[in-house]
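Hello,

Our lab assistant flagged a job as stuck in the queue for most of the afternoon. It eventually completed. Since we weren't sure the result was trustworthy after the delay, we are filing this so someone can double-check. Below is the sequence as submitted and the structure that was eventually returned. Let us know if re-running is recommended.
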Amino acid sequence: MLTKSFADAVLEAEQIIRAAPHVRTAQDLAEGYDYLAGSIEASLRMAWAYQRDFPFFVQSTGPYTKLGLDNPDTVYLHAYLRDNAEYVVTGRRGTTTDLSFQVLNGDYSPVEVPDSLTAFDDRELDIAADGTFELRFGPPRRDAPRGYVPLAPGAAMLAVREVYSDWAAERRGTVRIQRADMIGAAPPAAGQAQAAKRYGVAGKILLSRLRTFLAFPDWFYLHEPVNTLTPPRRTPGGLATQFSAVGHFELSPDQAMIVTVPHAGRQVAPYQGIQLGSSWYVSLDYINHQTSLTADQARTDPDGMLRFVVSERDPGVCNWLELTGRTRGYVQLRWQRLTRSLGPADGPAVHVVPAADVPTALPFYAQARISPAEYTARIAARQAAVAERMVG
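-- returned structure --
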């Protein structure tokens, strides 16, 4: 049976989900099966996109194919490369806050993070008045013109991230990749042997994806004390201008975590955001619930601080981050497109209080309040924005 290798991998993947160390309740397992469904979809998509001679950008991480504590504010794209070929990347810059490019020497595995060989953002591009740009990636050349990015030995993947700060106002751009010496040509028709190979690859991607990102929290989060956040530090993986602060929480329904962090300002960090993640190390439902906020979406207090309330109980404030029925998970703050390094003074402070004490624990509670109708309007705006920019 041509699909047997993939079918066997799905059965093994189900056992990985069932045996995950954090599973305590039926709800944990139900969320795991939902995560598995998205991972199956993404693995098939990635296997069929494994086209180094006729590459195209694929969105394998999104609202329904989540992994790796995906950022709700980011559109993730990637294409596969050969380190001895030349590629042309063209596009039109949108109005999003950040657009970055990263060349990796492989994919994530359960034992290591791939090396970042090159990483830069669109400030290094020559962008025309109409927003168009062109880049070339290829083997090192002595006479390389501006806009030519040399591929180091082992280069295997080009990742592109487009990041929103204001979901309603910013608009996504376009990006395309072609192998330079294949433009105008066509790949040979796929036969059964190639299809069988792709199903086999999809199965390997699925199992590696699940094992890798179940291991990630132990690498970067779970050795930190619960209900704390680290100072800002460079995000692992080689992103050129991103810092993050991370932590994991465990809260009862009658508790609230208050996260206080300076509003960095657009001159320092055009993008600043916070998000919650489930025990499966993926974002919570950010479409129908407010489980993430950017600095543009949040309300800043008169003293220049951003104060977020993480809780199950609705505190009636603008910067509420909903736990959506869970007691455990992850918190991450990100700063991107930075113009300077960050230190402890730029980072978050965390206090856990009884949920009933939130009004007295917030120094500007009156200014932070929001009506139920206003909160419903915020959710409606999230639903509309995600439908427009993150389909797939």
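-- support follow-up --
The delay was a queue issue, not a problem with the job. The result is valid. Helices lie at 4-18, 26-48, 192-220, 358-361, 365-368, 372-389. The mean pLDDT is 94.
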